[in-house]
Design brief:
- This protein is 2% helix and 45% strand.
- It is an all-beta fold and 224 residues long.
- Bound molecules: 2-acetamido-2-deoxy-beta-D-glucopyranose (7 copies).
- One 2-acetamido-2-deoxy-beta-D-glucopyranose (NAG) binds next to loops.
- It is found in: Membrane.
C-alpha cells in the first residue's frame, strides 16, 4: 500500500528564550538544517501519508503549559528513479547503425508533480531534440508518471559518447538515469579510389581506405 510509506520529518522545537518559555516549531526534511541546540524528533517512523499530509503540529513544555506556533506538514512524494530505455534493446552499450533512427525513452517513476525531463549526450544538452510526453496518472492521479522520447539518428561523430537523461520536478529535486554508451555501427565506406581508365591487358591495383566499425574481417571485391 502506497500509504504505508515511511516518512521522516525532522521537527525542530526551539526554546526561543529561557525567560519567556516561548517555543518555535519548524520542520525540515533535511537533518543538516537542524540547529545544534534544537530537539530533533522523527515523527513518527511510520505514518499514514493521508493523515500526515496537512496535519498541524505544535511543541512545548508540559510543565509550563506553553506551546509553540502550529506548523503544518505537507507530504511530497519525490522522484526516486528515472529509466532510460530504447525501443531496440536495453544492452549497454547500445548499438545504433549509422543513419538509422532509434527511439530512446526516458520515464520518471511516479512523483507528486510532473517532472521535466532533460537529455544529455556526453554532457551536451540535447533536450531540444526530444519531445516531452503527456503525464500519465498513477494511483488515482495522486502522482504522475512523466516521460520523454528522443528520436535519435545514428551519427558516427557520437560513437563512444554516453547518453543519459535527468528528471527534475517542481521542487527542484533531480535524479539521473543510468548512463548508456552509444556504439555507432557503420557500413564500410570505401573512399579515395581514384579514377582509373583500364586499358585492356594492363593490371590494375586498387588500395581502398576502409573505415568501418566494427572493422570488417574481410573484403570481397566484385569484378564485372
Ligand atoms: C498533500 O496536500 C496537498 C494540499 O492539500 C496536496 O496538493 C497534495 O497532493 C497532498 N500530497 C499527497 C502526497 O497526497
Ligand atoms: C524503433 O523506432 C524507430 C523509429 O520510430 C523505428 O523505425 C524502429 O522500427 C523501431 N524499432 C523497434 C524494434 O520497434
Ligand atoms: C520509484 O521506483 C523505486 C525503485 O524502483 C521504487 O522503490 C519506488 O517505490 C518508486 N516510487 C514510486 C512513487 O513509484
Ligand atoms: C536544456 O535544454 C532545454 C531545452 O533547450 C532547456 O529548457 C533547459 O533549461 C536546458 N537545461 C540546462 C540544465 O541548461
Ligand atoms: C553528425 O554530427 C555532426 C556534429 O554534430 C553534424 O555536423 C553532422 O551534420 C551530423 N550528421 C548527420 C548525418 O546528422
Ligand atoms: C547527474 O550526472 C551529472 C553528470 O555526470 C552530474 O554532474 C550530476 O551531479 C548528476 N546529478 C545527480 C542528481 O546525481
Ligand atoms: C578516363 O576516360 C574518360 C573518357 O575517355 C575521361 O573523360 C577521363 O578523364 C579519364 N580519366 C582518367 C583518370 O584518365
Amino acid at each position: 500500500m502506497e500509504n504505508q510509506n515511511r516518512f521522516y520529518i525532522y521537527v525542530l522545537c526551539l526554546s526561543i528564550t529561557a525567560y519567556t518559555s516561548a517555543f518555535l516549531l519548524t520542520t525540515s526534511s533535511d537533518r543538516a538544517t537542524a540547529g545544534r541546540d534544537s530537539i530533533i524528533l522523527t515523527v513518527p517512523g511510520t505514518f499514514d501519508k493521508d493523515k500526515l499530509n496537512g496535519s498541524r503540529w505544535t511543541c512545548g513544555s508540559q510543565i509550563q503549559d506553553k506551546v509553540s506556533n502550529p506548523v503544518q506538514v505537507y507530504v511530497d512524494i519525490p522522484i526516486t528513479k528515472v529509466d532510460l530505455t530504447s525501443n531496440l534493446s536495453n544492452e549497454n552499450p547500445i548499438k545504433v547503425v549509422s543513419g538509422s533512427k532509434h527511439l530512446f525513452i526516458c520515464t520518471a517513476n511516479a512523483s507528486q508533480s510532473a517532472a521535466r525531463i532533460q537529455w544529455y549526450l556526453s554532457g551536451t544538452n540535447i533536450t531540444d531534440q526530444a519531445s516531452a510526453q503527456p503525464s500519465i496518472c498513477s494511483t488515482g492521479c495522486e502522482t504522475v508518471i512523466s516521460s520523454s522520447i528522443l528520436s535519435y539518428i545514428g551519427n558516427i561523430t557520437d560513437n563512444g559518447k554516453t547518453m543519459y537523461c535527468t528528471a527534475v520536478n517542481g521542487e527542484g529535486q533531480s535524479v539521473n538515469s543510468t548512463m548508456k554508451s552509444i556504439d555507432i555501427l557503420y557500413q564500410p565506406i570505401i573512399s579515395d579510389i581514384p579514377d582509373y581508365n583500364v586499358t585492356e591487358g594492363n593490371t590494375l591495383s586498387i588500395f581502398p581506405i576502409i573505415d568501418a566499425n566494427p572493422q570488417p574481417t574481410f573484403l570481397v571485391e566484385s569484378s564485372r
